[in-house]
Amino acid sequence: MRRKLPGDVPPSSAAAGTASSASEADLAQLSTAIAAGEDLGPFVRRAFACGRPEPLLAALRGAARDREAEIEELCRAHFHDFIRAVDDLRSLLADADALKGSLSASHSALLSSAAPLLASLESFLAARALAGNLSSALASSRRCVRLLALAARANAHLHAGNHGLYLALRAVDAIDRDLATGPEPLPLPTLRQMLLSVVPAVRAHAEREISREFSDWMVSIRAASRHLGQVAIGRSAAARQRQEELRSKHRPLEECITLDDDGVGDLDDFAAAAATADAADGAAAASFDLTPLYRAMHIHQTLALGERFKKYYLENRKLQLTSDFDVIAATPFLESHQVFFSQIAGFFIVEDRVFRTGGGLTSRPDVDALWDAAVGKMVSVMEDNFSRMQTANHLLLITDYAALLAATMRRYGYPVGMLLDVLAKHRDKYHDLLLADCRRQVAEALAADKFDQMLMRKEYEYSMNVLAFGIQSSDITPAFPYVAPFSCTVPDICRIVRSFIEDSVSFMAHGGGGDTYAAVKKYLGRILSEVVDASIQKLVDSGGGLSVSQAMQVAANMSVMERACEFFTRHAAQLCGVPLRAVERGRRDFPLRRSRDAAEALLLRLLRAKADEFMRQSDGVNWMADDPPPGGNEYANEVIIYLETLTSTAQQILPLPVLRRVLVAVLAHISERIVDLFLNDSVKRFNANAVTGIDTDLKMFEAFADSMSSLFVDSDQESVKNEMKTALVEARQLVNLLMSSSPENFLNPVIREKSYNKLDYKKVAAISEKFRDSSESYFSTFGTRGARQNPKKKSLDTLIKRLREAS
Length: 807
Known about the structure:
- By secondary structure, the protein is an all-alpha fold.
- The chain contains 28 helices and two strands.
- A two-stranded antiparallel sheet has the order 1-2.
- Keywords: Cytoplasm, Exocytosis, Transport.
- It is found in: Cytoplasm, Cytosol.
């Protein structure tokens, strides 16, 4: 158990001490509040809430006693002052009685003097009331006069026509505001009733008149839109033509790396042309009158019908656009496409002007929705008609006009990507149709050509058929009449291809999209390979009954067409605005190689056939002659004469490389035919005299080859001479072997490789068995049985024996 310490306090004593300290603090706060004059309500509420109001009451009684003591002290200190104040009040009361008497006397005097003034005041009040009534009557009269004047003005404006409708409505609105907001109703009920009935009547009349005028304007603007569209598209075409002329004018300037001052000034013409086109479009937009539309909108806004009029306008324009789509329903699209596109162009030119100047009559989403509907319709119509068109010119005509429409509408800010996409989508079909047309024209040109050299009698013919395509061989103008080295097919084909290039560039530049030059170059390659090359090759392969001279002319034409192909590439680049330097760097091989090779092959085939025809006259060769023919065999002379005649003609039209290839091939064929003469089954035996005759023939051919080598002055004459002699090498080696004193040297590999490398074993064996010496006869063995054998004969027999063993 805890022991109680001396300083410990009982719990009850501690609680009592705590309560007494709290009460002392509350009383101190209460005294402070009473001294400060504060509100004692919180202290009272807290005391009663705690259930101990007695200390509070005691404190309040003590405070009251303190205050009473203070009052007593104050009164004891100042009672003399109170007595003096009462005395002052008594003297003041006497002064007040004297003043009252004075006021009463003054009042009596005032009443006696104010009686006339009161009478005058009553008269004045009566006059003022009368003046007020008169002023009210005058104000009402002026109000009525003003309302009647407004009514008269409104009537005058109505009689002036629709131009005065707005002013009439303003007058009516003034009447309506006066009636509605006036200080008091009109004193004339009849006038008020009349005005109340006239105001809505005038408004209804204005609405009817402006609606009728707007309907008439809608009809007139539809008719004017077609003309407006035609004018705008025509100006776009003129602007495009001006730009093309400026581009052609400055094409030489574009070829230069640097520009001088004059060049820069000239290039500014492009900007001037564009500005001129924009000004022309502005003039076209200002050529139609939108005043009735603005008036109708203003009148409806004045009538508080602006939103309804906007909806009415948009609905009517939608109906007009839908009816504009029906223009192509009654007539073929080819005949009505210009009207169709012009109507749509004019429609949206008007809409653009209305959007920009209509004060909110239309919004951009509304105009875009109309344009999207029109583009969708145009796209579907073009795709449907393009899919059924079979003529390139018709497709180009429609495409060109659609491209002009796109250029016109782009200038007004409308998106035309879908229209251009449709044109680009049908690019391949257009070129396929164009290629088919060109294929027919080329076939007709080839069929009509007799393949004779073209005769030009006048300089303009030379300029039109030669200079226009850059196929001249010299810059010097020839004397006239001039015989060209080509036939009339060449300029005809050049004109066809040039027209194809121009049509392709026109389509690609105005509606094809993408890289114009790359696409045109691709289609140029197609017409050259699929049309020109294929048509000429078809003509050559079929033969068509062509003679040697005609085949030679075809081969000559191909050499000229090589220069023409370079012109085609340059022409396409110029039309596309591509510098010629880039074209020259990117040159390709000759695109007509197949037909050129086929033409040369045909010429060689005909020349070989002609040579075979002369060689068949070798039946007159005496293979067992007693003496060699002094001037060679007759067939060789005729072949030489024919080749000389042929060469004199060919060197005028054929290029020297082609002529050289032809002569080499013909001489090689003659060499083969000479060898075949010895192998012919009809030749059973031949002797040395026959071989000597063939040797003479070969010498004639070799002399011809030597004489022909002088024609090729641009080449190494020695190499040309060796090339032509090499063509006769097989026949020459065979004749040399037969005329050799030791034919068995053919068996020596070194000698054979050096002197007889073109000879075949089997051919030598077959020919050697037919060879007989002139001293040998059917019965000569009986007379020379004991004589020594000829060494050449022995060597030949050895050769034959060894060749038989080898085979």
